[in-house]
Write a structure and sequence with these properties.
Strand content: 35-45%
Shape: globular
Helix content: 25-40%
Number of helices: 2
Distance between the termini: 29 Å
Length: 87
């Protein structure tokens, strides 16, 4: 189960334990009808992963094609001066 609280994704595993991930960046792709999340562990901010969700309840691995697209979106997010001005 996936729950988003502020800037944190709470993932409840089958055994009931919770795993916390911070959201660095996310976006919605209307063509794929999915949300894409760039997540990291607070204790290891250099380890960024990309996951997707199409049902707002579960996270899924991304395909190679989706990963390339997500990397392009991340580059835009990090390099666009207009976005940087509103951060």
């Amino acid at each position: 189960m996936l729950e988003i609280l502020d800037n944190t994704v709470v993932i409840t595993k089958d055994d009931g334990s919770e795993d916390l991930w911070k959201i660095y960046f996310y976006y919605h792709n209307p063509d794929r009808n999915k949300d894409f999340f760039f997540l990291f562990k607070e204790e290891d901010p250099d380890s960024l992963i990309v996951m997707s969700s199409s049902d707002h309840e579960t996270l899924e691995d991304v395909s190679e094609e989706e990963l390339k697209e997500a990397e392009e979106m991340l580059n835009t997010y990090e390099e666009d001066p207009d976005i940087q001005a509103i951060k």
